[in-house]
TrEMBL record:
Domain of life: Bacteria
Enzyme nomenclature, EC number: 3.6.4.13
Protein name from the UniProt record: ATP-dependent RNA helicase SrmB
Domain Helicase ATP-binding: 324-468
GO MF annotation: an example: ATP hydrolysis activity
Domain Helicase C-terminal: 542-691
Organism annotation: Brevibacterium ravenspurgense
PLD phosphodiesterase domain: residues covered: 206-237
UniProt cross-references to SUPFAM superfamilies, sorted A to Z: P-loop containing nucleoside triphosphate hydrolases, Phospholipase D/nuclease
Pfam families according to UniProt: DUF3427 (PF11907), Helicase_C (PF00271), PLDc_2 (PF13091), ResIII (PF04851)
GO BP terms in the entry: phosphorus metabolic process
Length: 1050
């Protein structure tokens, strides 16, 4: 083989003995980046290499006979390949091109060979897409089409072939949209009525997210082909337009075709795309097309006859509310979500669920808002969601209820003492208050204080933080937010405008400025920034370079002090960018006038200090200038949130963050986690690679200096040296805590960290020559120099396993594990207790050398272990949002719960392995396990099988189609007719169970990742074999957060 000449640059070369020799020869001159191939990618990488070597050798051979002999020599070396797999030597090599049942001839092959890939550009040497598509149709057994719009002129090009598909009984599925009114109703009606096609339409005219134009032609022989490109179904695109389309093949590009299938199926199952029946839906389609083409807006939010379903982000909020009420018994809850994300719809869906759970009449409802238009819109929303046009009464200026059962009232009307006195404290079962950040006002306080005997209380707000510093979360909700819509979720669902975030080096060193847990000294920053003309010039230059037009810009600039804001205002005005400073000292009338001038375009920038956190509503803001450092996620998100509202003619929010050399304790990870939703470990790689996985339309761009600063800072936070970590623990301990001990939850809450900051993948840590267990109690004792932590050798070994419990997230284990560790003695009943066995096997995966009872005896004597686990559970109780439910099929007596998260040892032990049989949970390595004693198949799924960020060869094997349908790939040798395959297919008939467990990746920041139990599953269908591709239907819908990660379409 040819060994590559080593030139500096990128490679993906398999290291052969020859290449290894060359690398060794040049090791003093060249630096090599050698990486181990991920196990999941290995088959793909090796087969690609072998294929290339075989092709090169075949080219070098001269005769057909030599080539056939060479191939057979290779095939003979594959011991599992029977003789039938070798090439026939009786004549020249041939290809089977088709098979048919007489008298029918074999199908006509398409104009491009089935195995080939191609790029069609409508060049003179290329066939037009129309004839190519019609040639594919002649041999297709099933056709799927996705088009952003479909016109009759495009249908005409393939008219006869579409009718022929119907004559042959070939199923056709079509996905399209009503966006921009470009689709023609006549075309869709023809597809449904004349061609028998199934058509699903997205009527969402607010966004432009579906631009796909693609076809896939399924063949029962497995030779599927697909076209992906720029051509919509119109005459110009199909015949003579300057369009580019790529032809993919199941043979040559299987990963691409698999992704197409998975994505199409996910769209098809999505409620966003609704089935189209010309008779029932024709009028609705015409209306949607008309509104889209003329930019009209619908006159009502929703049609009352429709079943209103939550968007994914709304489903997450509803899941969280259910957890607070059912699991924690908390019935006074606050939901925080950005304006425009459908908080009122969530409230209405939540109320509908409460109605469904109530026998008898609907619960009495009081909905409070402070503006008439909000009340009217909210009432419409509730009526639409409930499907009841007569639901509810308004109580505001000019409106007076008669029944007083379901009241939508203005706070001004309902908060007066004489009005409140008419009602008993328990008159209303459900109280919902919109814009709850006003909750500290006297009017709201009076109303809330009066109605105290409610069944459910729900506050809604976009900004829980108030400009006056009063904390509504602490005052009314015990410091707990029930659900908070995360930025990246809102962006991913296209609810907010995308952002372009630029990190720009400002050349200022702030590393010596006083820095505490609350941030930098304001006076210290003020001295460095105010009057710093060099920094100001960089800010002006960056703003004029990056912002497309500063004369139309509507910007907010966040400054460190009043003095700094006035200085930057002067700088911007001198640069020809009309600006004004608005601070807490500015008179309200002047502040209001400044905001109005910015809205009118008379100003291009407002310089702000500690305002605009609440009560500011100007969706047109398109630029944010961050001219002071902050590591507070709350403040950062408040500042960013000022510009994320959608507004006409605003396609993106531009964010300029001016970054200097920071103090060693400054944390970039807090800000970037809020911005991206990624963990600390993945952030480090993302920063190096330019943040490739962000919601569509958003991007983060760091200049070289800032990138180096950020990566270095993230590395120091991720790989925090033990000394720095202990110093951080000490700094965040009060004097009393330094003497008596700091609780794990207190430290994590104060520092905005999670358990991965404490528990590392290693079992032990060493500090000043002393080695101790990977334990919070050990770290806290080291940090606060207390010598009272003295575990025995046996207990240290147990403490080294504590990282095995950081995922525990359901009340059964919270209570059960505490109960086991606090037992007085190990009884035979305790030794058979499933929760005790789950705990036992978590410490000893393959069992204790002296048996279960002896192992449990060790645990009961381990005081430090009991305290450590108690502290982990205390933290997890405060963070968990799981709503667990028992399994069905006779498994309800076992402690495994759907939607809870388990280690392998826990889930196997919880389903009888190690107690009902002699196997040990730690000895099971496969991803499938049949437990005959329970007649249960346990299926373990890892969504991202490769450690690489993006590995097409291993994606689209296991994924969610909908919240209840899951596509799963069996083990590689499983056939449909095998005993295992038959058990999967006929499990309902045979009375056996299938339980599905899913995790996102193999390894996380703490080590091996746990699995989330999706619960019982039912066989729906399968395709192919070795492996089988099975679709399971979940008995219980997936948790909304996990569905977002598991679906094929992100």
């Amino acid at each position: 083989m040819n060994v590559p000449k080593l030139q500096p640059g990128l490679y993906e070369s398999l290291v052969t003995t020859g290449l290894e020799r060359v690398l060794q020869e040049h090791e003093n001159r060249l630096e090599s980046d050698l990486r181990t191939i991920d196990e999941a990618d290995l088959p793909h990488v090796l087969s690609r290499y072998v294929a290339q070597q075989v092709e090169d050798q075949l080219k070098a051979l001269n005769t057909t006979e030599q080539r056939v002999e060479f191939v057979n020599t290779i095939l003979a070396g594959i011991r599992t390949l029977p003789e039938e797999g070798q090439l026939s030597t009786g004549h020249k090599p041939r290809q089977l091109m088709g098979v048919a049942r007489p008298p029918l001839p074999p199908p006509t092959p398409p104009s491009i060979p089935l195995s080939d890939v191609a790029l069609l550009t409508n060049a003179s040497s290329d066939p037009s897409l129309g004839p190519v598509i019609t040639s594919e149709m002649q041999s297709a057994d099933r056709v799927d089409i996705i088009m952003s719009f479909i016109k009759w002129s495009g249908i005409r090009v393939i008219h006869d072939q579409l009718l022929d598909l119907r004559r042959r009984g070939v199923p056709v599925r079509v996905l399209t949209t009503s966006y921009m009114g470009a689709t023609e109703k006549k075309a869709l009606d023809f597809l449904v009525k004349n061609c028998g096609a199934e058509v699903h339409i997205s009527y969402d005219n607010k966004t432009t997210r579906l631009h796909a134009k693609a076809w896939i032609f399924h063949r029962n022989t497995g030779y599927d082909t697909a076209y992906i490109g720029s051509s919509n179904l119109s005459h110009a695109a199909m015949v003579d337009g300057l369009e580019w389309n790529v032809r993919a093949s199941r043979v040559q590009t299987p990963e691409l075709v698999e992704k197409f299938e998975a994505t199409f199926e996910s769209y098809w199952q999505s409620p966003t795309f609704e089935p189209y029946d010309p008779e029932a839906d024709g009028e609705r389609l015409e209306k949607a097309l008309n509104e889209s083409s003329t930019n009209k807006t619908p006159t009502s939010l929703l049609a009352s006859s429709l079943d209103v379903r939550p968007y994914p982000h709304q489903a997450i909020i509803l899941d969280d509310l259910q957890h607070e009420r059912q699991v924690l018994d908390i019935h006074k809850n606050l939901v925080v979500a950005a304006t425009g994300t459908g908080k009122t719809v969530v409230a209405a869906l939540d109320y509908r669920r409460l109605c469904q759970d109530t026998d008898g009449p609907r619960p009495r409802l009081l909905f409070i808002a402070h503006r008439q238009e909000i009340l009217e819109q909210s009432l419409r929303t509730f009526r639409d969601v409930l499907g009841d046009g007569s639901f509810g009464e308004l109580f505001s200026s000019g409106y007076q209820p008669t029944a007083w059962d379901h009241v939508f009232a203005s706070i001004q009307s309902f908060s007066k003492e004489e009005q409140l006195s008419r009602f008993a404290p328990g008159h209303f079962d459900v109280i919902i208050i919109d814009e709850f950040h006003h909750g500290m006002a006297d009017s709201y306080s009076r109303l809330i204080s009066h109605f105290t005997e409610y069944r459910e209380f729900l506050g809604l707000t976009a900004t829980p933080e108030r400009a006056d510093g009063q904390n509504i979360v602490a005052h009314y909700f015990g410091g707990r937010i029930a659900s908070e819509l995360r930025l990246w979720t809102a962006l991913d669902n296209d609810l907010l405008v995308p952002f372009h975030y630029f990190g720009i080096a400002d050349g200022v060193d702030v590393s010596d400025v006083q820095f505490t847990a609350s941030g930098y000294s304001v006076s210290g920053l003020n001295k460095l920034y105010t009057g710093n003309d060099a920094r100001a010039r960089k800010i002006i230059e960056a703003t004029t370079d990056i912002v497309s037009n500063t004369s139309t810009m509507k910007a907010l600039g966040f400054c460190v002090s009043v003095e700094h804001a006035e200085y930057m205002t002067r700088v911007f005005n001198e640069a020809g960018i009309p600006s004004e400073a608005v601070t807490g000292q500015t008179h309200p009338s002047i502040r209001t006038e400044a905001i109005e001038k910015l809205a009118r375009g008379e100003l291009n920038c407002l310089m702000a200090v500690d305002i605009f956190n609440e009560g500011f509503d100007l969706p047109a803001i398109d630029t944010i200038l961050m001219m002071r450092p902050t590591q507070s996620a709350t403040i950062f998100m408040q500042q960013l949130g000022r510009g994320l509202r959608r507004s006409p003619n605003k396609s993106v929010l531009t964010v300029l963050d001016f970054v200097g050399h920071q103090h060693k304790n400054f944390r970039f990870d807090i800000k970037l986690r809020a911005l991206t939703g990624q963990g600390r470990k993945s952030l480090q790689q993302a920063a190096k690679k330019g943040f490739p996985f962000l919601p569509a339309g958003s991007q983060i761009v760091l200049d070289s200096v800032v990138q180096e600063e950020v990566v270095s800072n993230l590395k120091s936070q991720l790989d925090m040296k033990i000394g720095a970590f202990l110093a951080d623990v000490h700094e965040n301990s009060s004097e009393i805590e330094r003497q008596q001990g700091l609780r794990l939850k207190e430290y994590l809450d104060r520092t905005d960290r999670d358990l991965s900051a404490v528990y590392k993948a290693s079992a032990k840590r060493t500090y000043r020559g002393v080695t101790g267990p990977n334990s919070w109690q050990q770290y806290e004792a080291w940090a606060n120099t207390r010598g009272s932590f003295r575990p025995s050798v046996a207990e240290q070994l147990l403490l080294e396993r504590m990282r095995s419990f950081v995922h525990v997230d359901d009340p059964d284990r919270f209570r059960g594990y505490r109960r086991v560790l606090n037992a007085d003695a190990v009884t035979p009943e305790l030794a058979r207790d499933p929760l005790a066995l789950m705990l036992y096997y978590s410490f000893w995966p393959s069992g204790h050398s002296e048996g279960i009872e002896a192992g449990l005896e060790h645990l009961l004597r381990a005081d430090y272990v009991r305290d450590e686990l108690d502290q982990i559970i205390e933290f997890q109780e405060s963070r968990s949002r799981v709503v667990p439910q028992p399994l069905s099929g006779g498994l309800d007596t076992h402690p495994i719960r759907s939607h809870a998260t388990y280690s392998r040892e826990e889930l196997f032990a919880g389903l009888g392995v190690g107690s009902l049989n002699s196997e040990k949970p730690g000895s099971i390595r496969e991803g499938v396990k049949w437990v005959p004693e329970l007649k249960t198949d346990i299926l373990l799924v890892t969504l991202n099988k490769s450690a690489a960020d993006y590995s097409p060869s291993t994606m689209y094997r296991d994924y969610a189609l909908t919240e209840t349908l899951f596509h799963w790939e069996s083990q590689s040798l499983t056939r449909a007719e095998s005993p295992t395959g038959q058990r999967y297919i006929n499990h309902e008939r045979d009375g056996s169970n299938v339980v599905l467990f899913v995790r996102e990746s193999k390894v996380g920041e703490i080590g091996t990742e746990p699995y989330t139990c999706l619960g019982n599953a039912r066989y729906v269908s399968h395709e192919s074999e070795k492996p089988m591709q099975i679709v399971w239907e979940l008995e219980r819908p997936m948790p909304a957060r996990l569905f977002e990660a598991a679906k094929a379409v992100q």
